[in-house]
Write a structure and sequence with these properties.
Length: 126
């Protein structure tokens, strides 16, 4: 039984700390930009890649390439062009993410909370 608990704890840790990256075939277009933007939320509403496209993702899907036209657009209407946001490492499809203000990354907090819950669950059972 102890082995099962340790396995669950290890799986929780791995799942919660695994970085989420966009599909490689799409990210080849963004290789010159900071790693901060190479996530599913660059084009999608949800970090899982589900939930539809955000404003930048919709514009990218229409144009099908990183053209000068797409780079000059302000997809999320936050007063910064897509190219300004990409160079700054912010998300051009999220109006809450713009140069000078970062979108918080909750991955580390989720991992810590998951580990604490798993540890409490394991400790309670022993």
């Amino acid at each position: 039984m102890r082995v099962v608990r340790i396995a669950i704890l290890l799986m929780a840790f791995l799942l919660l700390t695994h970085p989420v990256f966009s599909r490689p075939e799409y990210m080849k277009n963004f290789k010159e930009f900071p790693e901060d933007v190479k996530k599913c939320t660059l084009c999608h509403i949800q970090s899982s890649g589900y939930g539809g496209l955000n404003a930048f993702g919709a514009d990218f899907a229409k144009i099908k390439s990183l053209t000068p036209e797409l780079m000059q657009l302000d997809s999320d209407s936050d007063s910064f062009s897509n190219i300004e946001e990409l160079r700054a490492g912010t998300m051009p499809g999220n109006p809450e993410s713009y140069p000078g203000k970062r979108t918080p990354d909750f991955t580390a907090w989720i991992a810590v909370i998951g580990l604490v819950v798993a540890a409490l669950f394991t400790a309670r059972k022993t």
